[in-house]
Design goal:
With 214 residues, this protein is an alpha+beta fold. The chain has eight helices and seven strands.
């Protein structure tokens, strides 16, 4: 019996010695696991940021869904044509194209280099009372002033729109603000489809017509 008691006591001591080692090993594994988890999270975050950056190189915004998937009015098709021609192939910009033709600005816009155009949709023009819009379309000088106010003489990246002030071809200033592919021009007109490439311009399609300061 004495020998048996001694043997049991020895086993208990041995188990007591092993237990802390086992707990230490588990703790170490947990740290490694937590460390690995943190590293994975950081990697995923970096990957997401890279993805956002890549997305900013492409057209973005809810209005882009209405752009044709193929043909001359698609993003690929518009990228091959100068801006006025490209706009004429987009059904959502038909009122703008009519205005550009009435103002005699087709060649001016098509021959310009490295410009940015804030292009109002048909719905944007529809916000203007019909009598006022008809009057504007009939006044070439005033129409030219309004349309050239939508054009900036440099290609603007989405990042530049975060908080910007830019001189237009009309010589007035327009301001932009926003982030993460959500931008507003002059605190009133929202970009619904941005960063659309054409052969000579970058286009930001907006939901309201911009009026130059008086």
């Amino acid at each position: 019996m004495n020998a048996l008691h001694i043997r049991r006591a020895a086993l208990a001591v041995s188990a007591a010695a092993v237990l802390p080692l086992a707990l230490t090993a588990c703790s170490s594994d947990s740290k490694d696991s937590a460390s690995g988890s943190t590293a994975s999270s950081a990697k995923a975050s970096a990957s997401a940021s890279a993805g956002d950056s890549m997305n900013m190189d492409k057209p973005f915004g809810p209005g882009c869904a209405s752009v044709p998937k193929s043909g001359s009015g698609s993003f690929d098709g518009m990228a091959k044509d100068p801006v006025a021609t490209a706009a004429s192939n987009n059904p959502a910009l038909s009122t703008l194209v009519t205005a550009v033709k009435k103002a005699g600005l087709v060649d001016t816009l098509n021959n310009a280099q490295n410009i940015t155009v804030f292009a109002p949709t048909n719905d944007a023009f529809a916000k203007i009372p019909k009598a006022d819009l008809d009057k504007l379309l009939a006044d070439k000088a005033e129409l030219t002033k309004v349309l050239t106010y939508h054009v900036v003489g440099e290609k603007l990246t989405p990042k530049q729109l975060d908080k910007g002030s830019f001189e237009t071809l009309e010589k007035g200033k327009l301001t932009t603000s926003g982030s993460n592919m959500e931008y507003t021009v002059n605190d009133s007109s929202k970009v619904v489809c941005g960063n659309v490439p054409t052969a000579n311009a970058t286009v930001y399609i907006v939901d309201s017509v911009l009026m130059p300061p008086k």
